Amino acid sequence: MNDKNVLDFFAELGLLKRIKRSGWWMVGIPFEESVAEHSFRCAAIGYVLAKKEKADTYKVLMMTLFNDLHEARINDMHKVAHRYLNVRKAERAAFAEQIELLETEMKDELKSIREVYDSQKTIEGLVARDADILECLIQAKEYTDLGFRNAEKFFKKAPDHLRTESARRLWESTKSWDSSTWWEKLGKFER
Hints:
Blueprint: H1 3-14, H2 22-26, H3 35-53, H4 57-66, H5 71-74, H6 79-84, H7 87-99, H8 104-119, H9 123-145, H10 154-157, H11 165-175, H12 184-187
Helix pairs in contact: 3-4, 3-9, 4-8, 4-9, 8-9, 9-11
């Protein structure tokens, strides 16, 4: 693989910083997060869940970092779009094309982690998916705490899809957590 192909791959990844998460604009959030912002925190959550669930941290991080790569080509599709389009098929096709020009070792690894994620048959796949869902729920809680009550709609069905004990426990804690106060205790620190 030549350097131009690598740079093109990086440029495509960069699009994820500008693509907004569509579920949020569907409920009227005026400053919705980007796919890249979601992916970053999803990876951090995945790391914590992997440790708690004794899963392979590397595999979980790889899944959470590359899970939404396809959205650089097909955008983030909200659930209404899923009603009319075969979004999963489009995601798989876009991802396969995106990694096609990578070196064989990289391409094979990314293809493998995608298959593990999609199958949802390993603890790593379950943890990575839970990280994705939990990140969405935490973001919804933050938007709700900022006064955007429509974000609460995500609390109705998403929690039912959490599969690991650690993710379910964190979700239970999230419900009574005030996301806007974490920094207040830092202001009380005296040198």
